[in-house]
Write a sequence for this structure.
């Protein structure tokens, strides 16, 4: 115990005097988490979380365009503004705003939209009433409601905006159709009665077919209700930039422990310190465990510091605060298993690499690749299929997935045991390789 | 248990038919080495570059396992009772195997803990080692700030901290000035008088003549000659000094 503790204290002392190492371990991930969160905070607000904003240019001014604009302005996910800076926008102004980045799209309701929609609906309804061909292709082309997007706007956002506009336009057209249909049906029924009675039945002053309301569209029989995929079913936390980035970049920083850990081992081997230790009455196991314990402790401190950055510093910069939720114990388990995996890799690198230069290049490159594959920078679902399969082998991916299950999907230990097992297995494997190689060195 | 406790039967070191071949090597680094060192001796181990000195020291100090033969230290088989033997031996390696960013005291405290020393015993041992090597007033300075001579002295201090019965010194004075070398040799003579037996390797013949009662010359992994220093000189009256004798026995060809 005493020898293990002496080794742990020695490692902490050495690390505390390595300013470059401390900067790499603590300052780098803190800076990364702040920078990446601030950069992505707006992006996530415009994608799964909050609004994409656009301008409505009404060149028509009729009832259809007014109803369409009203339907769009009531939308939650996509924000439409007909009035900008206190007045109605023109198409030229809207185009300039897109270019300047003030808005992400604009919608143009052309002159004559109302007249064209009403004429088209009347034509269709009259054809229904006369049993004529009502195939969509048989009508002349309707007016074009144009959508123009900022070229950099991602496809997923464009799809969302198109869907909202199409739904609103379909609602307005359906309202117009129902109105004409109700009137046309009433006329048709009265006409048929007159025909059947040979003209002897008086024309009814009252409508025989009631006016068709818009309720049929806006009060549907079957409803679509959106549920979250949260494991607890009750609570769902929004995947904000803070909730995503704090654990992601904390993991990234923790895995950079490979640099000082492998560097320390290589230095000890090259400067004869390891050989000195090997002729002392202390086992390799104690020395390695002491070293690992020290560096795992550093990783956990790193994690704690980044959590504090997320809870206190980021809100001061205008973002949400990082929330740990109800699974603090499970979160600590993930942090511990991640620290073990990172340190196992660092130990293996320190034993296998022959020079500091080899370790200094190989370590960070491996960590960056594993981070990219693991979804730290780009979500896994956005990768090509083959990369998604490869990403399943990334320790950072396992840890990140575990954090997302806990912090965003509100899962518990049951949902993350698989990732924890993989991290521990990785640690065991790298530790085994290290011990085998160390034994062969001094045979 | 620190190495300083208890008696160590003589011979302190017995080596029988020691052999070592590295993995993948075409030739053995050591072949049939036989050696006996009595208590209180400073035994010189000489040889040209690549002769096998460091390999012999590494095997005898239990850093490497032999491919053949047997090493006994204080009556114990070195490879059957490794942990016990390692408490009895100390090593002063050729490399300055110290943590540069730790102080002299911190380095010795750490090594002392690994030797099983703690509390007051550890404090006494550290103080003693620093006093012997003349570094007591620099105990709180980082080793990285020491001169070459001071680093060699603290390297020695780390090897004698636990008062070993047998001390292996692999070229302990390489790269330092005459004053520092003189100081170290004085320390070694004093330690011999305290009962520490030593195996000493060096390329400096004047050190051998001053310190070593017996020497062995090794070449190509085989001991060429093993004798008391003075006796050896008498056997070769044509050689003016030990350096000439060494060249006579090992040849003048460069060992690249």
């Amino acid at each position: 115990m005493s020898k293990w503790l002496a080794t742990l204290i020695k490692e902490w002392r050495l690390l505390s005097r390595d300013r470059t190492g401390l900067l790499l371990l603590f300052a780098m991930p803190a800076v990364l988490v702040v920078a990446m969160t601030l950069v992505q905070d707006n992006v996530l607000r415009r994608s799964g979380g909050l609004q994409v904003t656009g301008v409505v240019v009404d060149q028509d001014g009729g009832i259809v365009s007014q109803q369409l604009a009203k339907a769009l302005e009531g939308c939650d996910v996509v924000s439409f503004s007909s009035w900008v800076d206190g007045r109605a926008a023109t198409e030229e102004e809207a185009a300039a705003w897109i270019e300047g980045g003030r808005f992400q799209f604009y919608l143009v309701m052309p002159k004559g939209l109302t007249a064209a929609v009403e004429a088209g609906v009347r034509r269709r309804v009259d054809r229904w009433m006369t049993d004529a061909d009502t195939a969509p292709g048989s009508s002349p082309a309707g007016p074009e409601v144009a959508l123009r997007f900022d070229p950099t706007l991602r496809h997923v956002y464009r799809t969302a905006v198109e869907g909202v506009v199409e739904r609103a336009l379909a609602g307005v057209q359906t309202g117009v159709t129902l109105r004409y249909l109700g009137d046309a049906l009433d006329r048709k029924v009265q006409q048929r009665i007159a025909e059947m009675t040979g003209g002897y039945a008086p024309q009814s002053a009252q409508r025989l077919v009631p006016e068709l309301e818009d309720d049929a569209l806006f009060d549907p029989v079957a409803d679509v209700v959106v549920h979250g995929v949260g494991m607890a079913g009750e609570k769902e936390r929004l995947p904000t930039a803070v909730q995503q980035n704090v654990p992601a970049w904390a993991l990234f920083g923790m895995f950079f422990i490979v640099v000082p850990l492998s560097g320390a081992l290589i230095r000890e081997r090259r400067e004869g310190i390891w050989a000195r230790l090997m002729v002392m009455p202390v086992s390799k196991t104690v020395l390695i465990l002491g070293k690992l314990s020290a560096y795992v402790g550093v990783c956990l401190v790193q994690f704690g510091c980044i959590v504090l950055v997320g809870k206190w510093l980021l809100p001061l910069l205008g973002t949400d605060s990082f929330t740990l939720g109800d699974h603090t114990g499970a979160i600590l388990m993930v942090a511990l298993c991640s620290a073990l995996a990172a340190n196992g890799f660092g130990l293996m690198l320190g034993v296998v690499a022959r020079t500091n230069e080899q370790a200094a290049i190989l370590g960070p490159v491996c960590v960056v690749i594993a981070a990219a594959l693991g979804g730290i920078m780009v979500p896994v679902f956005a990768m090509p299929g083959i990369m998604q399969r490869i990403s399943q082998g990334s320790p950072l991916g396992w840890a990140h997935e575990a954090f997302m299950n806990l912090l965003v999907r509100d899962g518990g230990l049951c949902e993350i045991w698989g990732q924890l097992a993989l991290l521990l297995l990785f640690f065991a494997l790298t530790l085994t390789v290290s011990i085998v190689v160390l034994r062969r060195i001094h045979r | 248990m620190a190495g300083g406790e208890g008696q160590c039967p003589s011979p302190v070191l017995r080596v029988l038919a020691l052999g070592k071949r590295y993995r993948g090597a075409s030739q053995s680094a050591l072949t049939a080495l036989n050696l006996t060192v009595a208590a209180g001796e400073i035994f010189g181990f000489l040889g040209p570059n690549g002769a096998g000195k460091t390999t012999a020291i590494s095997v005898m100090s239990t850093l490497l396992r032999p491919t053949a033969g047997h090493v006994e230290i204080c009556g114990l088989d070195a490879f059957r009772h490794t942990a016990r033997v390692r408490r009895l031996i100390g090593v002063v390696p050729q490399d300055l195997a110290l943590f540069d960013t730790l102080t002299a005291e911190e380095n010795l405290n750490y090594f002392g803990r690994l030797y099983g020393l703690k509390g007051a015993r550890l404090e006494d041992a550290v103080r003693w080692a620093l006093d012997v090597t003349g570094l007591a007033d620099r105990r709180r300075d980082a080793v990285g700030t020491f001169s070459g001579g001071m680093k060699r002295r603290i390297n020695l201090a780390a090897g004698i901290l636990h008062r070993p019965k047998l001390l292996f010194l692999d070229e302990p004075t390489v790269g330092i000035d005459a004053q520092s070398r003189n100081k170290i040799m004085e320390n070694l003579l004093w330690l011999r008088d305290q009962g520490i037996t030593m195996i000493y390797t060096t390329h400096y013949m004047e050190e051998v003549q001053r310190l070593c009662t017996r020497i062995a010359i090794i070449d190509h992994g085989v001991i060429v000659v093993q004798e008391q220093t003075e006796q050896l000189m008498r056997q070769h009256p044509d050689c003016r000094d030990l350096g000439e004798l060494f060249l006579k026995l090992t040849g003048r060809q460069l060992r690249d």
